[in-house]
Amino acid sequence: MQTMRDFHYGSIHHRDNFWREQARRIHWETPFERVLDDSNLPFARWFPGGRTNLCYNAVDRWLETRADERALVWVSTEVDQTREFTVRQLYDEVNAVAAVLRETGVEQGDRVLIYMPMVPEAVFTMLACARLGAIHSVVFGGFASVNLAQRIDDAAPKVIVSADAGSRGGKVVAYKPLLDRALTLARHPPTRTLILDRGLAPMQTDPARDIDYAEARARHAGAEVPVVWMESTAPSYILYTSGTTGTPKGVQRDIGGYAVALASSMAYIFDGKPGETFFCTSDIGWVVGHSYIVYGPLIGGQTTVLYEGTPVRPDGAILWRLIEQYKVNTLFSAPTAIRVLKKQDPALLKQHDLTSLRAIYLAGEPLDEPTAQWVADSLGKPVIDNYWQTESGWPILAAQPGVERVPTKFGSPSFPVYGFDVRIVDEATGEDMGPDEKGVVAIVPPLPPGAMTTIWGNDARFVETYFTSVPNRQVYSTFDWGRRDADGYYFILGRTDDVINVAGHRLGTREIEESISSHAGVAECAVVGVADAIKGQTAVAFVVLKSAQVGEPGPAADALRREMLAVVDDQLGAIARPSALRFVQALPKTRSGKVLRRAIVAICEGRETGDLTTIEDPSTLDQIKDSLQ
Ligand code: AMP
Questions:
Q1: Does residue 541 lie in a domain region?
Q2: Residue 120 near residue 126, CB atoms below 8 Å
Q3: Considering the domain boundaries, does residue 383 fall inside one?
């Protein structure tokens, strides 16, 4: 058996052979001409000339061997329903929606925006888009109208697919009014929307625009829509992510490279086989959901479990119960979920037969050692911390038990994944750092198959954002600090920018600041991420009011605070709502006017602020301290 080191070396130094071999894992209708076109780095074109289709690889290809096997299991503890779909049934559902979309005029290259809760119809729609060669843009259901409108304007979808409502923690969350608001805010809203009526929330419909999902599906039941064979490098989807500016970036991914990367990861990272069952607790609105609820498991011939619910309802054993019931082999979740479960009765962990489970994969945010230790000890299963980003599409750092079994170290997402030429670089010189030295986690181009290919509609921003921040060399910056120890294990040490991570969800502090600042009473504000025992970080806002008196403690200040938080809820969604909003007279700034965020965070976390020679007015730090009392 080869070692991980050799395997990784081969992926970088014998790149074409390596990926040509991996490309056999998927179906190509037309063989590719080359493995990689790297004539215009940092743009990488994987498998150019090849024609394939994500939907074909996820669904049609398995009809021959797995037609009557389960492909998708949907469990909702929110509405107490379970639905199961064999490969054949999934094929039928996907074809019906594809026919509906085609009827509304969706063609190859058109965008379809999906704003849906965790229901099977969301998966059918994603796959239907892939079948037609249309580009989906899934917007997380927790986002609100302003976020949605921004994404509508950027992607210019021909159709939006949505639902009356979702449900979270037993509470109905209406989607349709948010969508209607977003459509009035958008500059170029689409003329057609396809709406799934779950009967959860009454809604107003516009007969000229809204098409009823169930009715349209019934009309197209039994339809067979031919697969559109797509150029490997054509876009499969856009997924927006936050950065340091207020404008989200549309991460664009290809088709062939993505399919190959995911297919290979099912074997090497997840050590799985067709016929197994994969349970990923993420949301289809995030990259983990795209890759490991929808495409990865299905392309790998596995059953995927789609779960609408939280890890603690009806009780803290629900995840373990589902693992037993569906004989789940792989669980993929986030550290926050495990930290929540850690607070539950330990007896809940012992009630279920977890023999089918091989390992637990956790990603999306730092996995602290005590949590990793706790879950490993409690379940007696390997815990695989893996590090990645919306941009990478699949893990950058991870243990890869399908290649070689190597012990893990708690607190470390282990080693670079094959295809990723990961370096720890000096932010000042761009040079590679030695063992145990802290630097920026960077990737030498080309980014491997499956990673983002550009920013939707903005090639220049792709290069500018990701490939120019490290001096003296063109490398991709992850904007994370990291270090590698003497044994080659990597550690992630936090972001280099103002992006924060709340319960595994990346939030741009700028977006939240802009939202709060849209309230007429705000002069300026700063939002920072502060350490939180459960969620990793929470957002805390410091606001300077136009009229100083209003900020004095009392009912008027409380009312104003509520108003401002309501603006964030309304514009961005409750997910972005700061856990605290405090009024101050002035923000701590440097003499050149830059807000001293790190100092604010240090004060909030009860740490020393360090050297602040550039501060303009030191008394502003006391105000921050006082506001925390
Ligand atoms: P997102 O694109 O929303 O998935 O967020 C990606 C960011 O989450 C990364 O840049 C890291 O800051 C953080 N992240 C993801 N996975 C891990 C991990 N395993 N350990 C530490 N940080 C992580």
A1: yes
A2: no
A3: no
User: Which residue has its alpha carbon closest to ligand 1 atom 13?
Assistant: 365
Which CATH number goes with the domain that contains 536? 3.30.300.30
* pTM, rounded to two decimals: 0.94
pLDDT given for residue 1 in this prediction: 62
Task: Give the total number of structural domains in the chain.
Answer: 1
Residue 492 Cβ < 6 Å to ligand 1: yes
Model confidence over 74-89: pLDDT tens digits? 999 999 999 999 999 9
- Rounded to the nearest whole angstrom, what is the distance from the C-alpha of residue 414 to the centroid of ligand 1? 14
241 lines ligand 1 (CB under 6 A): yes
CA distance 589 to 609: 13
Tell which one of 365, 422, 477, 507 to mutate to probe ligand 1, the residue whose CB is within 8 A of the most ligand atoms: 365
| The token pair that represents 16 in the structure block | 């074409």
Does residue 531 lie within any of the structural domains? yes
Low-confidence residues of the chain, pLDDT below 70?
A: 1, 246, 549
537 lies in a domain? yes
The rounded Å distance from CA 549 to ligand 1 centre is 41
Question: Which distant-in-sequence residues (6+ apart) come within 8 Å of 162 by Cβ?
Answer: 114, 115, 116, 175, 176, 179, 193, 194, 195, 196
Cα three-residue angle 357-272-123, rounded to 5 degrees: 90
User: Domain of 518?
Assistant: 502-627
